[in-house]
Design goal:
Layout lengths: L5 E7 L9 H10 L4 E3 L11 E4 L4 E4 L2 E9 L2 E8 L4 H12 L16 H20 L6 E10 L5 E2 L1 H11 L2 E10 L1 H17 L9 H12 L9 H5 L11 H21 L7 E4 H18 L4 E2 L4 E3 L7 E3 L3 E5 L2 E7 L13 H15 L3 E11 L5 H6 L1 E2 L11 E8 L10 H15 L2
Parallel strand pairs: 1-6, 2-10, 15-16, 16-18
Antiparallel strand pairs: 3-4, 5-6, 5-10, 7-9, 8-9, 11-14, 12-13, 14-15, 17-18
Length: 437
């Protein structure tokens, strides 16, 4: 495709698109389900790539970042939604979450290696590590029933089929069970592996030992070249002993589906790419930072899904983003990847009441010493704002021991070349420790 004929439309996540392209964005939205959202968790939220803001009367990007090449009214367009705080910040967070080096230096970002290449490399890294975790008992196997005809018995005699052979040849028919690799699962892993090798830079990544052993086994297994179908994937049954393989099987199927969709779009002049959820990454990033720092103080991450009114029609699940526990004390936090310039309107009403609901639930069982909302700050977080963003008691009442705060990481000058991520993270973590003492 001749790139000189492609019109570029560019914005950042959670930001409006140039108004000159309203009709084009509307057309894109009708096709946006053809582009893939890559998820790091099992969340099934239907996240829009773009939506119309009726209050501001403009088209805005959602919280997903990525690129999409598509055709509209006979012309070709490249729509790019970039990270609000820059790509260097995105990959800094990903490296913290997955403890992997994606770029040569955390203080430099080489734009010659595109965001899509780096995201694909990350997906390959995740696939290898999920494969390593899943391969506790070797590749999944199933039992297959086989018949044996001869003078000896293997397994159990098939009496009905043995009546005539016993009389005429003094032989019996017996049935036995033999273990074999689960063909559907092997085909799924092999197909994903081939795609990762050719398109996802898998060969550039150091393989964990468990993953290397599984790949050696995969490469030795010969199967017909038949491809796994949608129905074939749905029919896969994973035995209890192999449940640790489920995450890598799900990711493998996503990779295969995305690859097929990309091949189909080539003839439609639409390109294949991933969109990733910045809110999901922000949450995982904060969880990783806080777990490292607060574990020094004796806190441990509490991962559980809370179900309220379990036996009622109005049963609901409460899932706070981040909860830490020490003895009978807990801290309840929600990560919000939204604008925060310390305007009161930046605090979403539903977010505010949701975190208070979480806190009140945990107060029934534990001593909640602190709770709050955590944002990426696009304005400098100074001492005066810290005073205005912290209440020593819940709801600001005269009694009580539960602190409530708005906090986060100061990213006001994140685009500057000398921006010091380590320093900003340390300041945030030091404040968090002060909140809980």
């Amino acid at each position: 495709m001749d790139t000189t004929t492609i019109t570029k439309i560019e914005t950042t996540d959670c930001t409006e698109f140039p108004e000159d392209y309203d009709d084009i964005i509307h057309d894109f939205v009708t096709k946006s389900d053809q582009f893939e959202r890559f998820r790091f968790s099992e969340s099934q939220d239907d996240l829009p790539i773009a939506f119309f803001d009726y209050k501001e009367t403009n088209w805005r990007a959602g919280r997903l970042v990525g690129d999409a090449q598509f055709e509209s009214n006979g012309k070709e367009y490249l729509l790019s939604i970039n990270p609000r705080f820059g790509e260097k910040h995105l990959f800094w967070m990903l490296e913290e979450i997955f403890n992997v080096r994606l770029i040569e230096s955390k203080h430099t970002y080489d734009r010659s290696e595109s965001r899509q290449q780096l995201i694909r490399k990350l997906i390959a890294f995740l696939w290898l590590n999920l494969l390593a975790k899943g391969n506790r008992h070797g590749l999944p196997r199933i039992f297959q029933s086989k018949s044996y005809y001869g003078n000896k018995i293997r397994g159990r005699i098939n009496v009905r089929k043995s009546i005539i052979p016993v009389k005429t040849e003094q032989k019996v028919v017996s049935t036995y069970r033999q273990k074999k690799f689960d063909e559907r699962i092997i085909r799924l892993l092999k197909q994903a592996y081939e795609i990762l090798l050719s398109d996802y830079h898998l060969g550039e990544i150091v393989q964990p030992q468990n993953a290397k052993y599984a790949l050696d086994q995969l490469n030795r297994i010969k199967l017909p070249s038949r491809r796994l179908t949608d129905q074939g994937f749905k029919n896969i049954k994973v035995k209890r002993i192999y449940q640790s393989f489920k995450p890598v099987l799900n990711l493998s199927w996503d990779i295969i589906k995305n690859n097929r969709a990309g091949n189909q779009r080539e003839s439609q002049k639409q390109s294949f790419s991933y969109f990733i959820d910045m809110a999901e990454i922000w949450e995982m990033y904060l969880r990783s930072l806080l777990e490292k720092r607060l574990s020094i103080e004796g806190w441990s991450l509490l991962e559980q899904k809370v179900v309220t009114y379990s036996d009622k029609l109005f049963k609901r699940g409460l899932i706070p983003d981040i909860v830490f526990k020490k003895g009978n004390q807990v801290i309840v936090l929600d990560a919000k990847y939204k604008r925060m310039e310390f305007d009161p309107n930046d605090i979403d009403r539903s977010d505010f009441f949701q975190i208070h609901t979480y806190i009140q639930y945990y107060q029934q069982k534990y001593e909640v010493i602190a709770g709050g909302l955590l944002y990426p700050f696009s304005e400098e977080f100074n001492e005066n704002r810290q005073i205005q963003s912290l209440s020593e008691t819940l709801f600001g009442e005269s009694s009580g021991d539960t602190k409530f705060f708005i906090d986060g990481i100061d990213l006001a000058d994140c685009g500057e070349d000398d921006f010091d991520f380590d320093k900003k993270e340390k300041k945030f973590l030091d404040r968090m420790v002060r909140h809980i003492v």
